Input
Amino acid sequence: MYRFVPPLPVANPRHTSKPCQRSDCEESTREGKPFCPQHVDHNPYAQHLLAKLEDLEREHRRVRLRGPAGVNLQGETCQEILRELGQQGRCSVARLAQTLALPYPLISSYVQALARSGRVVTSGFRRDRLQVQLSGGTPRSRRRGCIAG
Ligand SMILES: [Zn+2]
Output
């Protein structure tokens, strides 16, 4: 079967480049973007992401200083931990720290704060054995993908 496929329109870079929206910049942009490569951080989405990252770093600093008291239970890190536990079921705190690529003491503070708020329960006492799971328990069938320990 032969079907005619119209050629894709090829964007001419000269037609899609505009001056950078920074008033003090004379560069032109690529591919119709509002900012030149140097000022791409100024686009609203990138700024939104940067602001979020800064919030996160500020929170992590606070948690390092003040422990569980510094935790924002509505924050991104708590959401990530809860999401992870929802997927993994019961998990060791050490494993959780590894998965989220955050230092153990930091995750440990988050887990304590979440446990105090009743969102998660912990079991085990030794640091390397401390387990955490969502409160209310996790059905056996959903326990997978996590190396216990
Ligand atoms: Zn620029």
Q: What stands out?
A: Confidence is low (pLDDT under 50) at residues 138-145. The beta strands are 91-92, 120-123, 131-134.
